[in-house]
Design brief:
This protein is largely without helices or strands and 147 residues long. Helices cover 12% and strands 8% of the residues. It has a two-stranded antiparallel sheet. It has a two-stranded antiparallel sheet with strand order 3-4. Strands 5-6 form a two-stranded antiparallel sheet. Pfam families: zf-AN1, zf-C2H2_ZFAND2.
Amino acid sequence: MAEKADLLSLGTHCSLKDCKRLDFLPFRCSHCKEIFCLDHRTPEGHQCRDVVTSDVHVPVCPICNQIIKKSKDEDINRQVEQHIISGCKTLVVGKPKKSNKCSLKTCRQHGLMPFVCPDCRKNHCIRHRHAEDHLCTALQVPIISCA
C-alpha cells in the first residue's frame, strides 16, 4: 500500500478549479505561473487573465510601401491616412543603416558578413576580401633608394 501512495505523490494537480487532474508532466503558464495539465496548458485553455495581447501589425503605406511609425494610442488607419495626406513624408520609420560597407573607395557594396583583412584591419566586401584585391597597405613594399 505504501507503493501506491508514492506513485500518487509524483504528479501535480491542474490549477483549473473544474479540472484538478493529476498530471505527471505538468505545464507552468509563462504568464500566471500556475501549473496546468496537458488539456489546459495554453493561455486560451485556462482563460489566463495575465496574458498581455500584443499587436503585431506593421502599418505599411499602400502608395510608397514605407513602414509607418505606430503609436499605441492612435488607430493604425488614422496614422496611414495622416501619412498619405502629408504626401508620404511624415510618420516614416527611418531606413536601417547598412553595415559591412567595403572600405575600398571605389566600391559601394554592403556585405551580409564582414570580411576584415588581418593585415590592414579594414572591412571589405566578398569581392575585395583578399589583400591583393583591395590593394592592401601590407602588400606595398617600401622603396629603398640607393644613394
